[in-house]
Amino acid sequence: QVQLVESGGGLVQAGGSLRLSCAASGRTFSSNAMGWFRQAPGKDRDFVAGITWSDGTTRYADSVKDRFTISRDNAKMTVDLQMNSLKPDDTAVYYCVAASVGWAYDKWGQGTQVTVSS
Questions:
Q1: How many CB atoms lie within 10 A of CB 35?
Q2: Which of 3, 38, 61, 104 is most buried (CB neighbours < 10 A)?
Q3: What value, to the nearest 5°, has the Cα angle with vertex 101 and ends 98 and 102?
Q4: Tens digits of per-residue pLDDT, 48-77?
């Protein structure tokens, strides 16, 4: 089993930045990719960004391209999400996720709240 623990959420003004971090432990060798999803109040969970452990291939949702950057540290088994130029629409609970195979995410963290004020 892979355990995922998020940190770094909080309150920020529009235009500001936040950095989320996810620490993975357990059978991390069994995961191919890591990523972030988010869920705003009353909405579905949406994909934000993903990255593979092996070669660092990344994927982003169109809504965050050029503003968010995902990175990983294989030695520390951490995945970070640097969020710049934040907008009120980015307000959501952000979840760290892991994919056992391909980009099929099947492990979820508890989530961390990000609130962007206007």
A1: 24
A2: 38
A3: 90
A4: 999 999 999 999 999 999 999 999 999 999
3-state secondary structure of 56: coil
CB 111 within 8 Å of CB 97 = no
Q: Are strands 78-83 and 18-26 parallel, antiparallel or unpaired?
A: antiparallel
Average pLDDT over residues 32-41: 96
- What is the spatial distance between Cα 26 and Cα 10, in angstroms, rounded to a whole number? 27
Tell whether the model's pLDDT for residue 29 goes beyond 70: no
Residue type, 8: G
Contacting residues for 96 by C-beta, under 8 A, at least 6 apart: 4, 5, 6, 20, 22, 24, 34, 35, 36, 79, 108, 109
Task: Read off the pLDDT band of 17 (50, 70, 90).
Answer: very high
Structure tokens at 41: 């109040």
Q: Which two tokens stand for residue 90?
A: 């980015």
Beta bridge partners of 92: 114
